[in-house]
Amino acid sequence: MSIVVSLQEAEGRRQLRTLINGTRVxxxxxxxxxxxxxxxxxxxxxxxxxxxxxxVEQEPNSVIRPHFHQADQFQLFLRGGGLFGRTPLKEATLHxxxxxxxxGPITSGAxxxxxxxLRNGLDPGAKWMPEARSELKALxxxxxxxxxxxxxxxxxxxxxxxxxxxxxxxxxLAAWMCxxxxxxxxxxxxxxxxxxxxxxxxxxxxLIGGHAAGPMSCTFVSEREPPLELVGGExxxxxxxxxxxMRQVARAPEH
Length: 255
Fold this sequence. Notes:
The protein is mainly β. The protein contains 2 helices and 21 strands.
């Protein structure tokens, strides 16, 4: 069964975190638990999907240092200006990083920077660079990949079509944005082609399995589920689809 969570539910689990450099972030949990070594340990030896999704509110004029995670990850930037590395952030900019792929820094501008962090596996928390460089000795398959979308603003989604955010890759990685008209039925790609999917409603509302999903709702579909079917609500909706690459057998670095 797909997991569908509203923004209101996530905001009810909002909490403050202070990072090692003093930057403050507020995390509103949609799915799963905040990053911790305890939550990661719960899934060790378990091949079931463990989605983790939360909204980040990064305080103005602050920096999140370069780092990496042990899980594959999407980040969808929503509001507030800033820089991702040296790339200016725009609304609906999307970033993907394979597990153990360093990225950053993330620098907020004069306003709070808001973005979604979306994973398909548990994670013990950020590994800060350069201190954690020794943990990057090797991946089991040698893969280390980062992608940033072509900075489509939401209004650039073509009517009745899709704006490609990340072109589909052989292992299933893909992301796009589209409009769903009132009453229109849309079926997503077969989840078996990747390692799990997230669907974010940017605006408007849709029906998923007969349940309403409004603005900023978050839906996770595992690779074990059938394709997601949604129906556009009364005013239609704009949605973003993200699919993880197929899971790798060996994901942890060697020590």
